[in-house]
Amino acid sequence: MEILQTVLIVAGIAVSAVACYALVEFIKTARSARRFAEETRERLNPLLDKVDITVDAVNAELLRIDAILTQFEEVSDRVSSTTSAVHDVVNAPLDAVTAVSSGVRDVFSAWRRARK
To answer: What pLDDT digit, counting tens, does each position of 74-102 carry?
Structure first.
């Protein structure tokens, strides 16, 4: 019986030693994790500030590009309407000449038929 008690006491001491070692390792790991979190927070805040500034700059550039595209659309619409106006002005005399020549052709055609 004494041997069994001795074995149990030794086993209890061994289990206690393992538990103490596990507790020490857990504390080390927890401290390491806390340090890592603090370092990450210290490094992350300036990065987030830079990202915020970068996003603001990108938004400003996008607004500038949007303004440029709007102006391009306005100019393109003006060029299109000007082209249409010039086309109408240039084609008006041509249309008149075409109408007159068509009328003259019809008169000559009628005159030739009448002669035959």
So the answer is: 999 999 899 888 888 888 887 778 888 88
- What is the Cα–Cα distance from 113 to 20, expressed in whole angstroms? 126
Contact partners, residue 20, CB within 8 Å, separation at least 6: none
CA quadruple 108, 109, 110, 115: dihedral sign: positive
Burial of 90 per CB tally in 10 Å (0-12, 13-18, 19+): exposed
**In angstroms, rounded to a whole number, what is the distance separating the alpha carbons of residues 72 and 66?**
10
What pLDDT was estimated at residue 116? 67
Instruction: Say which residue the tokens 């938004």 belong to.
Output: 59
Query: Which token pair is 4?
Result: 């069994």
- Residue 14 burial (CB count, 10 A): 10
> Model-level pTM greater than 0.70?
no
How far does the chain reach from its first CA to its final CA, in angstroms?
150
What's the angle, vertex CA 83, arms to CA 81 and CA 84, rounded to 5? 65
